[in-house]
Amino acid sequence: MLRECAAAGAGGAAAELQAQAQVQAQAQAEAEAVAVLQMLLADHVADPPEVDGVFGPRTRAAVQAVQLAAGLVGVDEADGIVGPRTRRALVASGLLYDAVETPAEVAGTPPPYRATVRWRLVGASVPAYLEVSDVVGELAAAFTAWAVPSGLTFVHVDESAVASADADIVIRFVDLSPANNFVFDGPGGCLVRARHDAISFDEMEQWELLRVGAPNTTPYGRASRHPHRRFLKGEEHYFALLPVALHAIGHCLGLGHSDASSDVMSPYYSRDRVALSAADVERMQALMSAVVSAERQGEAAEANEQEEAP
Q: What is the pTM of this model?
């Protein structure tokens, strides 16, 4: 009887120790997860929380700021809870690190464009599941959207043309995996990289064409759906080319990111953001107005120097 009691006591103590160890391991795992979250937040908010593994008020406020910036919730609905949509915005924002150079708007220098901007697509780089002509059409729609606000004329240069080598903006699909924050970051880690003379879309993503304005020729309407949708479900796996192209062209022309989720220049991807906002238009007009003013000042200064020359 005494032996049975002793054995029972020993078994109970062992079980208690095991339970305590599990609680400690869970607490450590949660602290590590919070620390990773805090490191991610440092890339998204101006006042990031300290990386201490504690989900305190500053960490919650930073999460709420990301939810608002990404347009996930309304002003009164940001709860600071890191659910699936918030997690995706943090890990796979897609457009957060896409500007390779300092935008002209930020640097105060005009983009090096004439009145007519020529662009070409490297057809050989287009993924096999996309038609090159359809991609050209999608890109043309994106350039057209920026034409009026910028006052520029955009012309597609076919690769077979001699002038294609002189294109102002060259567009291609490349592997952008090295630009991702994580080796296995999932879809949307880095969707595109842009500079004044080049746009590079990540060939590793699953791209789709919205074909806005085209006739409804597919079971899905105008959109050209990725073939993987037959067995790989979930919108998070697929990205529309048009909103990403609109955003990238804005960078080419000199615009930086916007804090408003409704703007094309927001660094958070949205499939439905396929038209410039009033703020996008105003910023581009202001930038181009500054460019024209700088050009006129330069011309006036040059004329004065010529007059003063003996």
A: 0.72
